[in-house]
């Protein structure tokens, strides 16, 4: 079972704006905000963050991972579309519509 996912970021404030917008339709909210990390979990369930966006521990630039894929559960097709549109509006890239 998946406990959590950690993704590196070179700009946490930009990442925070992006992930706040795109995760909300999926029922996820920001639960932790620190200088070097932000954590998201299921709305109303403040026991565990499942997605962490962090500045890399070794202070090297964050890069994308070749072959890395993160799949998030959505409660409905409308939530998928809302997530997709929010991602594009906040700087995400389209590699194919959902």
N to C succession of SSEs: EHEEEH
**Which structural class matches the secondary elements?**
alpha+beta
Helix content: 25-40%
> Could you give the count of β-strands?
4
Radius of gyration, taken over Cα atoms and rounded to an integer in Å: 13 Å
Query: Percent of residues in beta strands?
Result: 15-25%
**How is the main sheet built?**
4 strands, mixed
Kindly report the spatial arrangement of strands forming the biggest sheet. 1-4-3-2
Overall outline: globular
Number of helical segments with 4 or more residues: 2
N- to C-terminal distance: 25 Å
Q: Would you identify the regions where 5 or more consecutive residues have pLDDT less than 50?
A: none
Name the average pLDDT.
88
Keywords for this structure?
26% helix, alpha+beta, 98 residues, four-stranded mixed β-sheet
In short:
By secondary structure, this protein is α+β, with helices and mostly antiparallel strands. The chain is built from two helices and four strands; from the N terminus they run βαβββα.
Write the SSE topology.
Layout: E1 5-8, H1 12-23, E2 28-33, E3 37-42, E4 51-54, H2 77-89
Parallel strand pairs: 1-4
Antiparallel strand pairs: 2-3, 3-4
Helix pairs in contact: 1-2
């Amino acid at each position: 079972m998946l406990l959590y996912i950690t993704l590196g970021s070179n700009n946490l404030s930009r990442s925070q704006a992006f992930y706040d917008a795109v995760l909300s339709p999926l029922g996820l909210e920001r639960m932790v905000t620190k200088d070097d990390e932000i954590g998201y979990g299921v709305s109303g369930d403040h026991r565990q963050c499942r997605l962490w966006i962090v500045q890399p521990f070794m202070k090297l630039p964050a890069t994308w991972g070749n072959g890395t894929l993160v799949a998030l559960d959505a409660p409905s097709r409308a939530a998928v579309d809302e997530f997709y549109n929010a991602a594009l509006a906040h700087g995400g890239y389209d590699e194919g519509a959902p």
